[in-house]
Amino acid sequence: MDEPLKRHVCLGCGFLYDEALGLPEHGIPPGTRWADIPHDWVCPDCGTPKSRFEMVELPYASAEAAAHALV
Prior knowledge:
The chain is 11% helix and 15% strand. It has 1 helix and 3 strands; from the N terminus they run βββα. A 3-stranded antiparallel beta sheet has the order 2-1-3, with helices on one face. The protein has one helix at 63-70; strands at residues 7-10, 16-18, 53-56. It is globular, with a radius of gyration of 11 Å. The longest helix is centred in the C-terminal third of the chain and has 8 residues, at 63-70. It is of the alpha+beta class and 71 residues long. Involved in the hydrocarbon hydroxylating system, which transfers electrons from NADH to rubredoxin reductase and then through rubredoxin to alkane 1 monooxygenase. GO terms for molecular function: electron transfer activity; iron ion binding.
């Protein structure tokens, strides 16, 4: 059984990366696991490095609603 897709929040600005959605506008297709994003990737909103993101467990609502809840 596949592990559920997760979300990761930027500790610098609250940006939410949702594995289910990816970031197609930044070349990361939907379904891309956090571990598969390059180690030198940075937050598209504030430039915080990948190492400063934390996995968060949220009830599954839209990523947009979740992002607003974290800010």
